[in-house]
Structures are given as structure tokens and as C-alpha cells.
Amino acid sequence: xxxxxxxxxxxxxxxxxxxDIIKESLGQRDVFVLxxxxxxxxxxxxxxxxxxxxxxxxxxxxxxxxxxxVDGLLANGIPATFINSSxxxxxxxxKKRSLSNNEVKILYIAPERLVMPEFLQFLQRLKVCxxxxxxxxxxxxxGHDFRPEYRQLKLLKERFPKVPIMALTATATPVxxxxxxxxxxxxxxxxxxxxxxxxxxxxxxxxxxNPYYQILHYLKGRQKDSGIIYCQSRKTVxxxxxxxxxxxxxxxxxxxxLTAEARTENQERFIRxxxxxxxxxxxxxxxxxxxxxxxxxxxxxxxxxxxYYQETGRAGRDGLKSDCILFFSYADMFKIEYFINQKTDEGxxxxxxxxxxxxxxxxxxxxxxxxxxxxxxxxxxDEPNCRSCDVCLEPKERFDGTIAAQKILSCVYRVGERFGxxxxxxxxxxxxxxxxVQNQHNTIKTYGAGKEYSKSQWQAFVRELIQLGYxxxxxxxYPVLKLxxxxxxxxxxxxxxxxxxxxxxxxxxxxxxGEDYDRLLFERLRTLRKTLADQEGVPPYVIFHDTxxxxxxxxxxxxxxxxxKISGVGDQKLMKYGKVVLKEIADYCxxxxxxxxxxxxxxxxxxxxxxxxxxxxxxxxxYKQHLTIHExxxxxxxxxxTIISHLEKLILDGAGISIDxxxxxxxxxxxxxAFKESGLEFLNPVKEKLGNDYSYExxxxxxxxxxxxxxxxx
Length: 714
Ligand code: ADP
Ligand code: ZN
What we know:
CATH class of the largest domain: Alpha Beta
Strand order of the largest sheet: 3-4-2-5-6-1-7
CATH superfamily of the largest domain: P-loop containing nucleotide triphosphate hydrolases
Shape: elongated
Bound molecules: adenosine-5'-diphosphate, zinc ion
């Protein structure tokens, strides 16, 4: 498992639960996997697929994504393919043929095609080892994305009773979970539930004072980062994306009012990083596999915590720090309430109200955001301080706000509890607003008594008084402030009120500081990645993830050996892009006078330790005892090719293995020459050139030597 993890995926360790899930799956059991977005679900079926001797079928509703997913696998040297309606009959035929020849390890397919009788018949002739059902919540009417065609998947257990099923989802509600297990007829299945805590996401809620300005402020210095901005209405989406474009940002709109083509195109341009920002209604996101979304901004209040969690969840799938910022205002809350009131179905209305209330509580509360989110999914946060939300990071300082509170409360009293928040604040600030003059509220005692604070500061005080239970908002269409029993003592000066000290200015905290990597180099590598991606017609993340680029910008790898230690760089990518990447890094180092000794220092500190899996280690021990490879294979009861692959790995890890006793010097030189002619990337051309006198094993060993620059000198 570890060998494959490193070789094909370039990772050195598993994410939580992955290893157990894979083991269970290799043991032919049905499993149910519940993991948040970014939890690493795909690896759970992709890795076992490589260990099975037949094919793994991945069922996914997202046809648009299949090609990218398959490209991603191919880029890692994994034989994968997809069949969907975008292909011609001829193309499908070719794919079917290579499936029949057992040349494919992973097949992606949509459920409606899978359950066609003839396709099922075709499958029955193959050696199917696993059905992985991605987005399996689509089977449940209770989920947020019910797809009737998923119901048909119940056929799988009937037709393939022996083939294990792995159902995966990021939807955490128990009803949905039960639905999935029942409908798929999973027998005696093991349930794996990962924590829904997304540690790399930083949650912030900001009062919505001047949201456009707040967004511009946030975006400054992060022009190159990808982000999603969610709005409630199409109109806001259009307005906001146009404004951002005018301000020099590459932003595109996405909403249900656009044609299907325009939507696909905008989404595609976002994924390929031709633009950085998508401004969207919630219609956007399902099936966005882009791992490096660095921020998700909610310009308007979301309608439910569940939705908010899913939407913010699209940030930081790659595990790197990402921001989730929500702009909260009462006005938004009332807007949603207004729409809820229009609903005719009483049950639906109740549910919508409850969801809105939960959402508002979340925004107003002074409890750690993460704690509340997790509690919503029935999970408890152990640490007292999550260190990655606004509540935990910016503990609010309080001051004796009794006088400010008295001004607000008495103003509410004097206007007869008949007006809303902004009106009351206008009076406090002595506004010449026509309505105030008409109502003669410019003559009351509190008129103009609140010039010491800004409008947004007064708004914050009012919000807090509501939260503390001194005031409440009442009324359907036009919410007005009402006094609560509790404020009597404050007005009589027999009780003090401590309010949160007002913020000096509008700010949205940036959380980039402290992350120590070379941003200039990162940018250069990002540009290189984009070029490579465009050449191959794949999204940039298929080439390298941000995580990999970031590590390169910390350790400045100088050799293929060093590059191989970077997370996400498996053998295939090493061979395909190793050279260009190393050249870019070397050029950069030269231009910026980064000295080799500095680099060496950094490289030796690489946190990416190679897993010394015991089996490779055992081979090494025997090798040190001067056993021949045949003896080692015999002693360990393993195939010769396995022992060779251990040695290959050890060579690449820099273990100083000599291959002279395995491959004759003469042969080594021939193999080297062949590689120099056709590049290190593929074995086949070299094998073809050299013929049957040379085995793949010999060729691989020599290549490994060449990759770490220890080839035989002539
Ligand atoms: P999900 O489908 O659960 O949202 P993905 O399968 O897309 O998650 O994985 C999320 C990210 O984590 C991807 O960028 C993936 O390459 C990366 N990843 C998955 N497993 C590992 C691992 N063991 N080590 C490092 N990165 C991993
Ligand atoms: Zn917190």
C-alpha cells in the first residue's frame, strides 16, 4: 500500500481513515465512507483499484468532471478511462475493447449508463473487483441533490452479489446515511465517519457595512488566488462580477439565468485558471473539483448552516489554509424571512424558519464558529480555542457600554417602539432625514446624542443588545425594535451593560502571515504549471497541486531525488515534469542568488520523510548481507520483480545501492544511451530499442540510478 501511495500518488502517509478503509475494501467488504470535502475520498478507491487484478468501476453523477478525473489519474500513470454521453459510439467501442483486454484499472461511468441492460451484460463478462459510488447521497430524497437515476443502483447487489461496494459521501445527516445503506442493500457494511472539522479553513463573520469595499480590501495582494463569492440573487452576481472586472480582477458570473453553455464555459475558465474569481449563486459548486480555492466569500447570508458548510467546504480541498468569510446583516436576514413568508406550505415554512434562525444564531453568537458548526453535525471540538476563527483569534474586548446602551434604549422608547434599527441610529446621530423631521423626532432628547460613534459602531451595539436580550426585532415586513423587560434596570441605571469594544475600522483579517514559503518562486511555478496545463489541455491541478508548488518553494529541490520528496510528486510526474521544474527552480535560484549551500540546508530539513516500510527495509537488510537478488526473492518468498522494485525505491531514496552485480557494466551503458535518446519518461521505447536481451527490471534499475545522477561513467 505504501509503495503504491508513493509511486503513483507521491504521498508518504495516509489521511485519517484512508488506510483502514482501503484495508477493509481489499478484504472484499462493503464500506460506507462519510468524509468532508477534502477528506481524501478518491484515494480510498483509487489505491485499492491498483491492487486488484480486475477493474474498479467508479459511479459518479458528474459527467463534466470525469475527463478531468481521468486525466488526473493518467498523469499519475494509472490506467483509467471513462464512458459517458460525450463520446461517440466508435470511441466507446475502443474503450470497451481495452476494458475487455483488462488494460484498465479504473472506469468512471454515470449511473444511467451503468444500469442499461446491455452494459450490465458487458460488465458481467469483465472481472469487476469493486463498485465505488461517489456522491452516494444522490440516492436519497432527503439529501440536497437527489437524482432518480441513482435509485437504480440497487440493481448492483442483485446482479453482482459478490462484488463489494464502497459508498462515499460528504453529506452527514443520519437519514441520508441510512437511505444510502438501505437502497444499495449494503450487507454488513463497515461505516467510516471522518471528522467534519476542516482544520485548514479559517472562519470569519464580518458585519456587512460596505461589503464591496470590504471585499476589495481583502483581495488586495491576492490577485492570483482563486476564490468563489456567493450571492443570493442573479442581479447581485451580475453587478458584483462587473464591478470586480472594472477594478481589474478577473471575475466571471455563474447563475441559473445564464445559458448552459455560458455556465460551463465560465466554470471551465475558473478551473483552468484563466480567471481567478467566480461570483455565483448557490447553483455553482456541486462537482467543483478544484483543490486550490483559497477563499469562499458569502456576500449575502446563506439560508442554512448545512448549505453554508457545503459552500465553505469548497475552499481548501488541498489542505492548505483558506478563508471563509461571511458578511452578516439584519437586512439580509429579513429579506430571507420575507421570502419564507411567501411560502404556502406550512411545513416547508417551518423548516425554512428554523434553518434561518440557526444560521442567524451562528453569526451573532460569540462562541467559536468551528465549535458551533461541528455541534451542528453532532461532533464535539476538544480544544477550547480553535485558533482559526474570528471569535477565537480576536477575543473581543469589552467596555462599560452602559451609556451607549441607555441612549439606544431610551431612543427606542421615545419613538414608541415603532421603528427599525437604522432609523433609531439616524436619530442618535442627528440625521436631517426627511422622515425624522416629519415625525418631529428631531425634537426628542436623544436626537443627536450619539455622535461619538460611527453608524456601523452603533449598529454593532444594537445587534449586541438584541443578542443580550435587551431588545428584540419584531414585525413581518418592516422589523421594528421593541424593548424587552430586561432593559428596565439599565434605563434606571441600576445595571451596567458591557459591550464589545467597537472596531476602529473595517477590516477583514488576512491569515497568510507566518507561512514561510518563497512567494516569488511559487508564482513562477504557478505560471509554468499553467503553461504545461494549457499545452496538455488539462486543468492546472492535474499537473501539480498548490501543496506541491508550495513545498517546492520552501525546499528548492535541486535534483530529481529532492523533487521526489515533495508531496504529490509520484514517479510519473517526476519523469514527465521533473526536468522543466528543476530548471525553473535552478534559474530562479541563480537569478536571486540563492546559494546551493542554503538550498542544501533547506533540503536536508525536508519534512517529507520517505516511509521506510518494513518490506523494503527487509530487502535492504538482506542486500547488505550480500545476498543476490535471486536469493533475496527466494528467502522472502517474493517475486523477483518485487525485489527489484524495492531496490529501485532504495536507490531513489539515496540508499547507495550498487547495481553492478545485477546489471553488467556494458549493459548499463547501453541502457543509459537509450534513455538519453528517448528521455527518462517511459520504459517502453527503451525496451523496444534494446530488445529481449534486456529485461524491464534491468532497465528500471539503471533509470533509477540515472535519476539520482549516479549513472555509470564511460
Ligand atoms: P474529497 O473527494 O474527499 O473531497 P479528494 O479525494 O479530492 O477529497 O482529496 C482532497 C485532496 O487531498 C486532494 O488534493 C488529494 O490529492 C489530497 N490527498 C488525498 N489523500 C492524500 C494523502 N494521503 N496525502 C496527501 N494528500 C492527499
Ligand atoms: Zn474558533
